[in-house]
Write a structure and sequence with these properties.
By secondary structure, the chain is mainly α. 78% of the residues lie in helices and 0% in strands. It has a single domain, classed as Four Helix Bundle (Hemerythrin (Met), subunit A) (Up-down Bundle), CATH 1.20.120.1760.
Length: 183
């Protein structure tokens, strides 16, 4: 039997590229919201897309380079929720999205987050599901469409994508709860 290698069991430093990207994402959210609220839609769209890309990148880099940290596990979902919340609330404020859409999505998002914390305290980790990833993609696509200054004929397709995002958001929330009953 060999002694464990301390380098293998050591937690990576919190100061690493994925955590820097996550932190930058959090810091840029107010800039995104300001662009949205001041009607600079192309810039708001560009910043939103950049923030969504960094969301994907930080996780991929963390896993590929074994840089997963407790900070990243906590900060990444906070950054995700903060961006989606800022985008939906901003779209409500400028009057292009009904408030009920934001309420439904955010009740599910924060409800499942709280539920995951309760499950974690019981020793059960609830990983992101494939449906959860589809939900995030649909939410980002719908928000992106609302941010783009599209011609009026795109209002209906944009609304349909948002309704699909709301439906998948609710369905995946129910699915998480249903699956937890089986455990």
């Amino acid at each position: 039997m060999t002694a464990p290698n301390p380098a293998e069991s050591a937690q990576p430093s919190n100061f690493n590229l994925p955590n820097v990207l996550t932190s930058l994402r959090i810091l840029v959210i107010p800039v995104f919201l300001w662009l949205l609220l001041t009607g600079q839609m192309w810039w708001a769209f560009g910043v939103f897309v950049a923030l969504m890309i960094t969301d994907k990148l930080d996780g991929d880099i963390a896993r590929a380079r074994n840089l997963v940290t407790d900070f990243g596990k906590i900060a990444d979902p906070i950054a995700d929720k903060a961006l989606i919340t800022a985008a939906l609330v901003g779209l409500n404020i400028i009057g292009v999205l009904p408030v009920w859409v934001t309420v439904v999505i955010l009740v599910r998002e924060f409800g499942i987050t709280l539920w995951r914390m309760v499950m974690l305290r019981r020793g059960l980790v609830v990983p992101a599901s494939k449906g959860g990833k589809i939900k995030t993609t649909l939410q980002a696509l719908a928000i992106g469409l609302y941010l783009l200054p599209l011609p009026e004929w795109m209002d209906l397709p944009t609304w349909i994508v948002m309704l699909a995002a709301v439906a998948v958001t609710v369905i995946t929330g129910v699915q998480y709860l249903w699956d937890s009953r089986k455990q």
